[in-house]
Structure formats: C-alpha cells, structure tokens
Amino acid sequence: MSAPSNNTAAELRAKFAAALCEGHSSEWPAAFADVPREHFVPVFLRQDERGRWIEVSAADPGYLETVYADTALTTQLDEHGVPTSSSSEPGLMLAMLDALDAQVGDTVYELGTGTGYNAALLASRLGSDSVVSVDVDPELVRLARERLAQCRLHPFTFTGDGAEGYPARAPYSRVIATAGLQCIPPPLLSQVREGAVIVAPVGFGVARVVVRDHGEATGRFLPTPAFFMPRRTTGRSPDFAGLEVQPVERTAVPAQDVLDRLKFPLSLALPGYHSCSWRDDEGDLTGVGLWVDDGSTATAHVGGKVRQIGPRRLWDTVEELASIFPKGTPAREDFRLAITPDSQRAWYRVPDGPSWTLL
Ligand SMILES: C[S@@+](CC[C@H](N)C(=O)[O-])C[C@H]1O[C@@H](n2cnc3c(N)ncnc32)[C@H](O)[C@@H]1O
Asked: What's the pTM?
C-alpha cells in the first residue's frame, strides 16, 4: 500500500491491527495493518463537554492515537449538527467483515462508502475489481475515490441510493451495508447469487443472512450491538405540539427501558423509529419521546404518564414488547430473519414465537 503515512502512524497501525484481531481467527488483520485509516479520515469531529462539535486534524495532539483507537470517527454533520457520515468503529467493522466471510474471487457490493476506509480494506484483500461501493452523497464519493486512488486502490464507486443496488455489475456474492436499514433492500436480494451472504445493520443490530433460491433468505443477528446512522430518507417530524392536547394514559413500563433493554426489539417492531430523552439538571432521566416517519409520536414521563398521537400508537408497541420481555435485555443472537421476495420477518427464538414484520 503506498499512501501518505509516517513511521509513528505505521507503528500505531501495526499495534492497532494486532489488538483488533487478537484472540480470534480472522482473515482481516493484514488489511487493517495495510490500509492507513488516517489517510481516509484526515479530519474528524468530536463533541466537547458542552456538546459543540470541534474539528480534529493531524496537527492536533492525540489525532493519530484517536484514529488508531477502536472508536467511530464522525466526519460529516447536517445543517442541524446531526452526524451524517463517519468512519465506523473498527471492532464493529471487523465483526461485520468476519461475518461476511468473503474470499478472493467474491464480488462485494458495499452500501455506504463514507470515507472509503471499508472499501479500501475490502479492495486491499479481495482486489479492486471485486468491490463496488455506493454512497448517497456525491462529495463523499468524490473524496473517497480520490483517497482510494492515492492508495492505488480502484474499487468501482458511484453515487446513488444504495438500496437500489447496481445491476450492471451484478450478480454479487457478498453484500455489506454500513448505513442503518429497516430491512434488507429487496433490489439487493435480486442482484446476488444463490448462496450470497448479506451483512447489514437492521434496526439496532447487525443481520447476517444467506440468500437461497429465488430471493429467499434466512439468517440471524450478530451478538454485537450496532447503532449506524440511518440510510437517508425523508420523514415527518414528531408532533410534540399535538401531544399536549391528547389524554394522559398511564404505563407501568419504565421510560428508561426504551433507551436500553427494549431498544433493539423496538427497532424491529417500529422500523426506523426515532427517539429522544429529557433530563433534569442533575442529568436524571425525566421522560422519553418516540416517533416514526408517518408522524406518529408518543412521550412517556418517568412518573408513568403517557401521551400518544398519530396513526400508530407507539407506546402500545412498547407495552407489548415489555410483556414479551418482562425482564432483562433479550440477546440479539436469539432473533432470526425469514425473507421472501415480498416479505421480511424477524422472529424471536422459535419461528412461531413473537415476530415482527419488517417488510
Ligand atoms: C457509517 S457511514 C459509512 C462508513 C464507511 N463504510 C466507511 O468506511 O467510512 C454511513 C454512510 O452511509 C451513507 N448513506 C446513507 N444513506 C445512504 C443511501 N441511501 N445509499 C447509500 N449510502 C447512504 C452516508 O452518506 C454515510 O456516508
């Protein structure tokens, strides 16, 4: 790999790759040791204690150490200061690459080029001709392509909605998504070979499915949590004003459950939901808000008061989940996926147990 780097970076990178892959067998240590992450993230953004975003670049102390830590690096914000692109946490990238089980000869489609770092890892191990990578943001694609080329890597990159796939280069034998999805995009299922492996964040988990005949696929979630920035779409804002005139209901489900132990099943039951929380001056939780793209909104106060508005009664879904999972956090790997060309369903433990329709 020839790319701008220096001795310190090379030493840090070697240690980082060794630490990342320590304790388990993986085909990816050489790629992590080879591809200079700093080259793909020359600048990242971190939040200070007051929540303000600050740019960090090579000139700043600790820059290289952070680049070679197991941490996600935010690289782009929207006009409201919400992150829209990042270089994902390397440990999670490795877990996803391991799950992808790609071998030389496989053709890989990546949804979410971002910085180009993951595309570089893929191209460095599998060869540039075997990798297709798409991002919805043309500027990100331009920068990634430029940086990849400086590393003498030339995967095919293009701008578009990654959920549509790229039929001209199909069929693919592996698909990896690095933007949060609500289900496996059906066009991708029809652009892969039989036996293809798809690894993608679905809700707040990472799904791994194997595609059988005629767009049917089955699989399960990896144990690892994943909070990827969602695939960019448009949706309605929460209706907090409308909630104020709704009748108050009562709940026995702690508001906190929505933020931790029920978070993953909720992401399957309410695909693409958004949430927020309110805290007092001491930082203690006072309430949570939930909404989905059709504008349905619910809030729950820690004291048990609930208000709901819109076509879907979101807190009712929380209540249902709390009755299925009365205690503890359900393990992600106990959730499976059953996919046909027209439907996608996640189920818990047994096929006729609790299940949620994703498509
Ligand atoms: C976590 S970042 C990807 C990280 C990237 N793989 C890397 O190594 O830097 C998620 C990316 O998904 C992109 N994205 C969001 N919606 C998309 C869509 N509909 N199609 C393609 N890319 C999308 C975002 O622009 C963002 O760059």
From this structure: 0.95
Task: Give the pLDDT confidence score for residue 49 in this predicted structure.
Answer: 92
In the reported structure, the alpha carbon of residue 228 is separated from the centroid of ligand 1 by a whole-number distance in angstroms of 9
**Nearest atom of ligand 1 to the alpha carbon of 137:** 25
Report strand pairing: 285-291 vs 274-279. Answer: antiparallel
What 3-state class would DSSP assign to 67?
helix
Is residue 55 classed exposed, middle or buried when 0-12, 13-18 and 19+ CB atoms within 10 A define those classes?
exposed
pLDDT of 227 over the 60 cut: yes
CA 160–ligand 1 middle distance (angstroms):
11
What is the rounded (10 degree) CA torsion for 239, 240, 244, 249?
Answer: 90
Report which protein residue has its CA nearest ligand 1's atom 1. 86
Per residue in 25-62, pLDDT (tens digit) is 999 999 999 999 999 999 999 999 999 999 999 999 99
Q: Which residue among 85, 86, 88, 130 is the active-site one? A: 88
Residues contacting ligand 1 via CB (< 6 Å): 84-88, 111-112, 114-115, 117-118, 134-137, 140, 161-163, 178-179, 228-229, 231-232
The per-residue pLDDT for 66 is 96
Establish whether 237 is a catalytic residue: no
- Cβ–Cβ contacts within 10 Å for residue 218, how many? 12
Give the 3-state DSSP-derived string for 241-269, with helices as H, strands as E and coil as C.
HHHCCCCCEECCCCCHHHHCCCHHHHHHH
Count other C-beta atoms under 10 Å from residue 15's C-beta.
Answer: 12
Strands 205-211 and 217-225: antiparallel
Query: Cα separation of 67 and 114, whole Å?
Result: 16
